[in-house]
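Exercise 7b. Backbone tokens:
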């Protein structure tokens, strides 16, 4: 029986975040250039988005390019930006009623890439199916730092008092304020770290690490992760006894 067949459709997480890792190693093991791994990774994105739509996942956030990735060789960055440009088309979005959103510093992206992405965001803004969120030129520490600055300015201008600062207010001032926090965070390729990704938002997310390289990730792998998620006890600081008594 496949993992998809084992799923409880009534318990599909509303928000799944993914760290798409392993493109380079996938290519190296096949004697290919790293860019070929990234190209294969694009195909995995399409498969995963289509699977998310079928499963009814409301938000899927993909760690596409971190601020630290700007440190990579210029040739690889250029190839990645070209791949992004070549694959920011509207077919998968419009055919599947998918909406596109972006978090991160888009000002650092090449202008043609930025223009294409903004155009697609605008074109899909009325789609009400799965929302695909690309974390582009994204850093969680940078996001939190900017949020602190924004809140300080509001305090200094008298818009809010220091006593008004709560966890909820901070969440509402983050770039992810339009969606719920991830219930499930998946990282591919066998690495077991967060890599500066959604640090505030994943406080109570379930973490799932798979040895599968990103280019080999597909619908069944996504279902495997969700099946694992569905079979965990999520306590949020409570005891197992309390959880059982509240069912």
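Sequence design result:
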């Amino acid at each position: 029986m496949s993992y998809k067949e084992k799923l409880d459709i009534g318990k599909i997480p509303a928000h799944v975040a993914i760290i798409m890792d392993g493109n380079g190693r996938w290519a190296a093991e096949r004697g290919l250039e790293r860019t070929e791994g990234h190209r294969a990774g694009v195909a995995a994105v399409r498969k995963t988005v289509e699977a998310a739509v079928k499963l009814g996942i409301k938000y899927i956030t993909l760690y596409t390019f971190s601020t630290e990735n700007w440190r990579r060789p210029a040739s690889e960055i250029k190839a990645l930006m070209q791949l992004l440009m070549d694959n920011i088309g509207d077919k998968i979005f419009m055919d599947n009623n998918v909406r596109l959103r972006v978090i991160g510093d888009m000002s650092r992206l090449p202008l043609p890439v930025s223009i294409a992405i903004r155009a697609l965001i605008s074109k899909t803004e009325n789609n009400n199916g799965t929302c695909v969120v690309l974390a582009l030129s994204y850093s969680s520490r940078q996001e939190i730092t900017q949020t602190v600055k924004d809140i300080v300015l509001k305090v200094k201008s008298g818009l809010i008092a220091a006593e008004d600062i709560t966890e909820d207010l901070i969440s509402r001032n983050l770039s992810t304020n339009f969606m719920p926090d991830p219930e499930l965070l998946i990282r591919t390729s066998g690495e077991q770290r967060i890599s500066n990704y959604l640090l505030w938002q994943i406080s109570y997310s379930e973490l799932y690490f798979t040895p599968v390289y990103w280019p080999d990730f597909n619908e069944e792998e996504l279902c495997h992760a969700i099946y694992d998620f569905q079979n965990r006890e999520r306590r949020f600081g409570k005891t197992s006894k309390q959880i059982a008594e509240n069912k």
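Instructor comment: The chain has a mean pLDDT of 94. Residues 34-55 form the longest helix (22 residues).
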